[in-house]
């Protein structure tokens, strides 16, 4: 180590030594100033850095708030969240950097200044003091007179002691100087090196962080380029739409601007209307029109209004089935119309004649819809008859409630296979395809909806109201039956059913299953050996009956499902004595032997559906439709009779409902001009007549003899069918009249038809009793 001040010169106390001391002391004083300044700057930098980190943290929190606000935009929310997390990491790195700076610069240099420089100053003071004492001793020794021996010895002793002390202190001082000069290099370099390593770690961590973030930022940049292009395209489209709308003549198209239809939310129509006060004065507020102008809407079979969007709607009409709507021309204001209910009336005013007409039409349409869709859910179920006598209780004939919600769910899920989704196997399905007779999970039901109603008609098992014949249809089929048809070749083809959650796989599978029918085995049969044996026995019984029986169109027939005959010997169902459409009205000798149906794997699908419809074999009918059968196929060998007519002849209400749900034409007639309604009337199948009238059958159509269904029912003296036909005709005439919705005739029509539907599906013996009673008179 190179010494700054030489120890030998220290002992000599030469001018070189003094000059060296002066140079070192000046250097140490300047070093102290530099170090003090550096420590103060370091403290200021650390304080500024902490303030920067605090501000940066607030900025980062602002980014996170913006990300939460953009929760409806996945791209913005994800990117802002990722960026805020990265900035938080950088804030943590900055905090670590400032902590290391405080330890390396501030702490170390302050310790050097306070400890080592303080020791140097203390040594300097002692050296200066002993140096002065040595000078005084030399002066005193020089001034002593020669003749004063005592004083000479005393001065010599003091000088010797002082010199000895000076040498020790001077040597210690030089040692302190040399150590300080050496130590200051290491202390300064160590603190600065530690500070630079802290920066190296900081930038290295930041580099690693942003290296990981780089690919995402690159992808986001590409996505941003696309967004810019899309935004420019949307801007052009909006400018074009703006220009197009600006050029429209609003004066002639105001109705389109004042109301809108939102079927998804159950809103039929909505818009602003003026409302006359409902108090005793019946006045319009002329001074403050905003007090009477309200936002009206027709939704959920109700007429409601509200002043502000957040206000709870005020119900004007609780049930549109009980009201009527009419023009008001006898008051001073224009464009007025009145909605009248049994308890009150509401006078409303539109802004134009077109809007008034639109509102009146919307109210009328809603009334009609309410009649079709909203059943009476407050009616009591019929009491069961006594098991000992088997007779009907005359006081238990109250109207039965339409099945809805959990009751429908529980009944349908009791069918084999219905406790899991028919297509993906998800447990507890809450939706159904009513024309296929299967249960579905909510995701598969959405895919079925996209296929179109000609492939699948979807309904909720818990939210929708179920008519009795439709619920009975669901209980006749089920997932196991339909899958045996539509998934017959699934294992042979090596195809696996999609799992829950696989949306794309589900969509492709369902489309292949029901639209393309790739898994249907065209040569399969659903009849078990026992069923085939029963069919042979039934054929033998039928051959005997054909040789001994002749049934008239007016002969009372005992049925169990609105017209199914019962064998008197063993109680089993058998085929009626006449099975083809034309044979009902032909002599016995002209009946065709082709009416006896045998199973065949190679039948034409239409003929297979035709025969299965008569046999009430719904699985076989579903199989025929899966093989491509035309639901309106006409048999040229039997007077162009259709499967629906055969279902009427077979006497099954559920079979008719299945064909109608799958697109059967309720008005398609045979060569004699008789449609399903004609045949159901001839056979006295009251439940089928009720069903066909509800499904829009034309009761005015006449056959080749000029007879319509009503005239046939009158000739047969069937009071129930006459009542249904006359009531339907009266209801039809009322609907053709303007503004007569909601009158007692409409309500009676709905109640009576609901009663007959319930009895036909759940208590067909009642219809038999009524039919027999009517024929006695």
Automatic annotation (TrEMBL):
<keyword id="KW-0479">Metal-binding</keyword>
<feature type="repeat" description="ANK">
    <location>
        <begin position="672"/>
        <end position="704"/>
    </location>
</feature>
<keyword id="KW-0862">Zinc</keyword>
<protein>
    <recommendedName>
        <fullName>Arf-GAP with coiled-coil, ANK repeat and PH domain-containing protein</fullName>
    </recommendedName>
</protein>
<dbReference type="InterPro" id="IPR004148">
    <property type="entry name" value="BAR_dom"/>
</dbReference>
<dbReference type="GO" id="GO:0005096">
    <property type="term" value="F:GTPase activator activity"/>
</dbReference>
<keyword id="KW-0967">Endosome</keyword>
<feature type="coiled-coil region">
    <location>
        <begin position="117"/>
        <end position="147"/>
    </location>
</feature>
<dbReference type="InterPro" id="IPR001164">
    <property type="entry name" value="ArfGAP_dom"/>
</dbReference>
<dbReference type="InterPro" id="IPR037278">
    <property type="entry name" value="ARFGAP/RecO"/>
</dbReference>
<feature type="repeat" description="ANK">
    <location>
        <begin position="639"/>
        <end position="671"/>
    </location>
</feature>
<feature type="coiled-coil region">
    <location>
        <begin position="217"/>
        <end position="248"/>
    </location>
</feature>
<dbReference type="Pfam" id="PF12796">
    <property type="entry name" value="Ank_2"/>
</dbReference>
<keyword id="KW-0472">Membrane</keyword>
<dbReference type="GO" id="GO:0005886">
    <property type="term" value="C:plasma membrane"/>
</dbReference>
<dbReference type="InterPro" id="IPR038508">
    <property type="entry name" value="ArfGAP_dom_sf"/>
</dbReference>
<dbReference type="GO" id="GO:0008270">
    <property type="term" value="F:zinc ion binding"/>
</dbReference>
<dbReference type="Pfam" id="PF01412">
    <property type="entry name" value="ArfGap"/>
</dbReference>
<dbReference type="InterPro" id="IPR001849">
    <property type="entry name" value="PH_domain"/>
</dbReference>
<feature type="compositionally biased region" description="Polar residues">
    <location>
        <begin position="555"/>
        <end position="568"/>
    </location>
</feature>
<keyword id="KW-0343">GTPase activation</keyword>
<feature type="region of interest" description="Disordered">
    <location>
        <begin position="374"/>
        <end position="399"/>
    </location>
</feature>
<keyword id="KW-0863">Zinc-finger</keyword>
<dbReference type="Pfam" id="PF16746">
    <property type="entry name" value="BAR_3"/>
</dbReference>
<dbReference type="InterPro" id="IPR011993">
    <property type="entry name" value="PH-like_dom_sf"/>
</dbReference>
<keyword id="KW-0677">Repeat</keyword>
<dbReference type="GO" id="GO:0010008">
    <property type="term" value="C:endosome membrane"/>
</dbReference>
<dbReference type="InterPro" id="IPR002110">
    <property type="entry name" value="Ankyrin_rpt"/>
</dbReference>
<dbReference type="InterPro" id="IPR027267">
    <property type="entry name" value="AH/BAR_dom_sf"/>
</dbReference>
<keyword id="KW-0175">Coiled coil</keyword>
<dbReference type="InterPro" id="IPR045258">
    <property type="entry name" value="ACAP1/2/3-like"/>
</dbReference>
<feature type="region of interest" description="Disordered">
    <location>
        <begin position="555"/>
        <end position="578"/>
    </location>
</feature>
<dbReference type="Pfam" id="PF00169">
    <property type="entry name" value="PH"/>
</dbReference>
<feature type="domain" description="PH">
    <location>
        <begin position="266"/>
        <end position="368"/>
    </location>
</feature>
<comment type="function">
    <text>GTPase-activating protein for the ADP ribosylation factor family.</text>
</comment>
<keyword id="KW-1003">Cell membrane</keyword>
<keyword id="KW-0040">ANK repeat</keyword>
<feature type="compositionally biased region" description="Low complexity">
    <location>
        <begin position="386"/>
        <end position="395"/>
    </location>
</feature>
<feature type="compositionally biased region" description="Basic and acidic residues">
    <location>
        <begin position="374"/>
        <end position="385"/>
    </location>
</feature>
<dbReference type="InterPro" id="IPR036770">
    <property type="entry name" value="Ankyrin_rpt-contain_sf"/>
</dbReference>
<feature type="domain" description="Arf-GAP">
    <location>
        <begin position="406"/>
        <end position="527"/>
    </location>
</feature>
């Amino acid at each position: 180590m190179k010494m700054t001040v030489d120890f030998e010169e220290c002992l000599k106390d030469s001018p070189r030594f003094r000059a060296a001391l002066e140079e070192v002391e000046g250097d140490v004083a300047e070093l102290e100033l530099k170090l003090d300044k550096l420590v103060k700057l370091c403290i200021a930098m650390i304080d500024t850095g902490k303030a920067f980190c605090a501000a940066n943290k607030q900025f980062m929190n602002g980014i996170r708030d913006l990300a939460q606000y953009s929760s409806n935009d996945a791209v913005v929310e994800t990117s802002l969240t990722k960026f805020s997390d990265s900035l938080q990491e950088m804030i943590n790195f900055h905090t670590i950097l400032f902590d290391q700076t405080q330890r390396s610069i501030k702490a170390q240099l302050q310790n050097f200044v306070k400890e080592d420089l303080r020791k140097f100053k203390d040594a300097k003071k002692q050296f200066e003091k002993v140096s002065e004492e040595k000078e005084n001793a030399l002066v005193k020794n020089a001034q002593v007179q020669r003749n004063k021996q005592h004083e000479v010895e005393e001065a010599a002793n003091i000088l010797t002691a002082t010199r000895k002390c000076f040498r020790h202190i001077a040597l210690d001082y030089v040692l302190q100087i040399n150590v300080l000069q050496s130590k200051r290099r290491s202390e300064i370099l160590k603190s600065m090196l530690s500070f630079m390593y802290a920066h190296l770690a900081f930038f290295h961590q930041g580099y690693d962080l942003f290296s990981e973030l780089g690919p995402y930022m690159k992808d986001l940049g590409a996505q941003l380029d696309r967004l810019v292009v899309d935004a420019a395209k949307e801007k052009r489209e909006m400018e074009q739409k703006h220009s197009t709308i600006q050029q429209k003549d609003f004066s002639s198209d105001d109705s389109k601007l004042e109301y809108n239809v939102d079927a998804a939310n159950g809103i039929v129509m909505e818009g602003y209307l003026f409302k006359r006060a409902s108090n005793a004065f019946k006045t319009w507020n002329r001074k403050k029109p905003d007090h009477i102008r309200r936002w009206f809407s027709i939704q959920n079979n109700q007429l409601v209004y509200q002043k502000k969007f957040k206000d709870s709607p005020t119900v004007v009409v609780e049930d549109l089935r009980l009201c009527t709507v009419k023009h008001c021309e006898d008051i001073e204001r224009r464009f007025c119309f009145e909605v009248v209910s049994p308890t009150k009336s509401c006078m409303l005013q539109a802004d134009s004649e077109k809007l008034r007409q639109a509102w009146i039409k919307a109210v009328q349409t809603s009334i009609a819809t309410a009649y079709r869709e909203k059943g009476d859910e407050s009616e009591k179920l019929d009491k069961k008859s006594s098991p000992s006598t088997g007779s009907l209780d005359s006081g238990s004939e109250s109207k039965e409630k339409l099945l809805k919600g959990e009751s429908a769910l529980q009944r349908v899920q009791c069918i084999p296979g219905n406790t899991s989704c028919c297509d993906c196997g998800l447990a507890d399905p809450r939706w159904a395809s009513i024309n296929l007779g299967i249960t579905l999970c909510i995701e598969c039901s959405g895919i079925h909806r996209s296929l179109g109603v000609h492939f699948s008609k979807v309904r909720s098992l818990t939210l929708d109201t179920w008519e009795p014949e439709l619920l009975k249809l669901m209980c006749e089929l089920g997932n196991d039956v339909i899958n045996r048809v539509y998934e017959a070749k699934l294992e042979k083809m090596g195809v696996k059913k999609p799992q829950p959650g696989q949306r794309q796989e589900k969509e492709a599978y369902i489309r292949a299953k029901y639209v393309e029918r790739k898994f249907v085995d065209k040569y399969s049969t659903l009849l078990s050996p026992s069923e085939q044996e029963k069919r042979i026995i039934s054929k033998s019984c039928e051959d005997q009956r054909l040789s001994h029986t002749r049934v008239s169109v007016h002969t009372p027939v005992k049925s169990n499902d609105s017209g199914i005959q019962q064998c008197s010997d063993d109680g089993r169902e058998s085929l009626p004595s006449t099975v083809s459409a034309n044979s009902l009205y032909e002599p016995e000798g002209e009946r065709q032997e082709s009416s006896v149906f045998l199973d065949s794997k190679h039948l034409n699908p239409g003929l297979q559906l035709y025969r299965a419809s008569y046999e009430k074999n719904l699985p076989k009918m579903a199989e025929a439709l899966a093989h491509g059968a035309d639901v309106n196929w006409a048999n040229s060998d039997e007077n162009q009779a259709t499967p629906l007519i055969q279902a009427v002849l077979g006497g099954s209400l559920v079979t008719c409902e299945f064909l109608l749900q799958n697109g059967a034409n309720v008005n398609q007639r045979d060569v004699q001009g008789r449609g399903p309604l004609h045949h159901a009337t001839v056979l006295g199948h009251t439940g089928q007549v009720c069903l066909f009238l509800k499904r829009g059958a034309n009761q005015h159509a006449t056959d080749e003899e000029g007879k319509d269904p009503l005239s046939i029912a009158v000739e047969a003296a069937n009071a129930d069918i006459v009542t249904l036909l006359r009531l339907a005709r009266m209801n039809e005439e009322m609907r053709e009249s303007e503004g007569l919705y909601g009158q007692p005739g409409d309500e009676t029509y709905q109640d009576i038809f609901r009663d007959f539907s319930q009895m036909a599906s759940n208590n067909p013996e009642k219809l038999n009793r009524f039919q027999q009673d009517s024929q006695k008179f």
